[in-house]
UniProtKB/TrEMBL annotation:
Domain (Thioredoxin) ranges: 43-155
Pfam families (UniProt xref): Thioredoxin, TPR_19, TPR_20
Name listed for the protein in its UniProt record: Co-chaperone YbbN
InterPro entries named among the record's database cross-references: Thioredoxin-like_sf, Thioredoxin_CS, Thioredoxin_domain, TPR-like_helical_dom_sf
Organism expressing this protein natively: Streptomyces triticagri
Amino acid sequence: MQPRNMSMSGVVDLAAVKAAQEAKAKAEQTRAENARRGGGGAVSPAGLVIDVDEAGFENDVLQRSTEVPVVIDFWAEWCEPCKQLSPLLERLAVEYNGRFVLAKIDVDANQMLMQQFGVQGIPAVFAVVAGQALPLFQGASPEPEIRQVLDQLIAVGEQRFGLTGLTVDADAEAPEAAEEPEEPAGPYDALLEAAVQALDAGDLGGAVQAYKNVLADDPGNTEATLGLAQAELLQRVQGMDPQQVRTEAAEKPADVPAQIAAADLDLVGGHVEDAFGRLVETVKRTAGEDRNAARVRLLELFEVVGADDPRVAAARSALARALF
């Protein structure tokens, strides 16, 4: 059976499943039925990581998402960053012990699913919760940031839809752990120092390229990820007329590019909460490509500030509420 048509615009309802409240009721019914059967709904640890194709998508992802959040990992054998991200996601799926299920989709074998989710590049990670699809992140992000995203996803699933996860059979054999990728060859001190020197000299293009050179070999390098986000932000605001940008943003609240430009200026000026709040509000009142553009820029600004900053955590929660 082919998956039904979908269009990604932030969060979208999938026609194959019921509305959120119906999904919540169904999840509660399933838990009650399992309780009457003496906990017969338990799954083995191996069932927390599944390979999914187009034929099994409806049952393995759409229907399963009425019981537990399903995280989708779009990957391919030839994708080097995928070889770092996929084992990490598999390990976290087992560690989270039934709070979410990981569905792995090989894009080479499942082109239709890739197109229906609007995947632009891999690795790309999405989630489906109670039949609603949500883009999470793209690329091999650092583990602490991935954990934050998963924690938010689980919280939304529980608070909005009553999805408390699956019961895992502790006596069942756990899946064989995927081998962690070897640490990439380094060191990167020289490249990182070159990027810093380029920034100090005002050579933003050179700094961006230096950070990209590090990330091409080590996608999970936290220092390079942060540095690239900062350099690209400075590059975007270079040459802007602050007064003109702020005037346009004030006069055109529905103009997404104007709001994005103003948010960039807010952040460069140290007004972190203003930048985050502006984009969260933009996400709330837009849809389609406009909403996605605002969401993506907000995630980029999170990278600039850093995942450990409490303002980022608060804004991530606000973004999740806006999307749902």
